[in-house]
Amino acid sequence: MVADTISNHTFVNSKIKIQEDAISADDLVRMAKMCPTEFFYVITSESDIYFPKFNFSFKPPVWDSKYVHIWGNSNTLRLYNKELVLRNPGNFSDDKIIAGEVELKIIQEVIYKEIPPDIVFLSFDEEDAVANYKKLLVRFPRAMHIHGVKGIFAAHMAAAKKVSTDVFYVVDADADVLSDFSFDYKPPAYDRNSVYVWQSLNPINDLVYGYGGIKLFNTHMLLGYVGSSIDFTTSVSENFKLMPEISNITKFNTDPFSAWRSGFRECAKLSSKIIINQDNTESEKRLDAWCSKGFDRDFGEFVINGAQAGAAYGKAHMNQPELLGLINDFEWLKSQFDLAMRS
User: Fold this and answer.
1) Does pTM top 0.90 for this prediction?
2) Domains of the chain with bracketed CATH
3) pLDDT in tens, 169-184
């Protein structure tokens, strides 16, 4: 939760879970009764924030004690007079603040900063991984690199254990991130448990959808996930959000095996219908494009051959999750590629 991350950056007496999106009179009473001091601070935020210098020692002078104090012209941080809240809690609820009926003292100083979500670049054996990561670092120095973890699900779990933010981005090693993609999306508080996937351009068949796109995960939800690892991106949360923007070109066609492997894995998923809530009509269109288009592109022949083999494999084993799970085993995929090349 956001509150957990904020707790790591400042002193917190308590965390209160409110019933609605706004703080009610009852919420304020609960907070006020917890505090032994004359005034109490409340932090509300949909994003992780920290306070680099502010030490919460400010106490209003007597002539300003009736006001609710806010900083930076935002109500993310408020300072309440405990006695006045307990006397008339309904006068200080968020409904009253929104209606402009609460007397505010606005201190223009900006005392907190937002913590942008961590960015994790995942690689295993991709040819252009180093170059793509260096390119990403130029614009986003906070991006961290996890390399060589065996298994796609295991690599994502390693990322979730390494990050320090409540949500984090995942960038695949073959992603050439577009120059206008900024990693600045802020999930609303009510929707932070969703998995967000941006669209990607396929350089072989020109499809544009979530395959190979940048993803935004809820850290705690991913760490607690115990379901299927075959296509966990669409199953780790009940809510899957496909974002309209294109985040990157997924340049998986760098060598014969990488090209073949990509086609095989995606088409095994599409044909087995393992992707939760997939549109079957749209999936068939994508299958057809993977299996027939782009022969003239770099390593396009290998993509198409892998796609056709993957489509047949997924259809043959659609009700056999253990066998479908092999599509995430790169050693097994290499053995299948070698067999296909010999034949």
Assistant:
1) no
2) 2-114 (no CATH), 116-250 (3.90.550.10), 252-343 (no CATH)
3) 999 999 999 999 999 9
